[in-house]
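Recap from last week: sequence in, structure out.
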Amino acid sequence: MKRLLTPREIQRWYPERWSEIAGNSRLVKAWHDFLQYGGTNMLFTGPSRTGKTRTIALGIMAAMCPHRSAKKDPCGVCSTCQQLMNGRESLNGIFAILAESKCSYFAVDCETVSVDELKVVTRDVRMESATTLVYLDEVAALGRRGIDTLMLKAIDETPAIWIASAIAVRKGNAKGNVKRIPGLSDPMLARFAVKEGTALPLEPELTAWIKERCKAWEIAIEKEEQTIPLLIKRSRHRVGMVILVLAVAASRGRRLGPDDVAGFDFQAAD
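Predicted structure tokens:
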């Protein structure tokens, strides 16, 4: 019998199969092409809580898994998958050997990484290999901190494959609302051949996804015809927000009703 996830585990949940992703069809297709035909540098952008990080995490695990399925799902049970699922931020050198992985992986938190740590990336990670994946989480933060030039040469001169994410915000101007990525320089943007933005799921898809997650996590939906539409509306179709609401529901008797959704502080969670 499969163990029931705790509220904290629901909050930190990541999909293990492509079918578990709601929306973001262009991101999923980009990863499927990556897995089918070979990798190139990819940049994924979008507002917060729209599924960038969860989609990227699944793509990286699928790319590194030596036993992924015909549907390009990672197996979830091999040593490589287990290391990544348990939160290891790098799989290179001895760790890659122990995980029996043919690939190396290194993650960089661009909001907190120091100059010295950036130098370690180019010195110690197996950059000479085309089977090395480097993930730049919130890459635009490097530009805002004035240190993005340190990465440009490494991206240009190494065979490693670079994956990056960046938060896009909507700003109004004379032409209407446009997406901006503060801090992302044109030289950095040019380093990524594939650029895709997140896309929110439509109501029918998100409705089915919510029902599936509640069933898997044993959360009873009360007054379903009211609760689900209200949750979709108040979350503004953002899957990350929905997951937070479900985590709270799991902590309160594993029941979700209209009052729970109406009482949730979405603004504070944003």
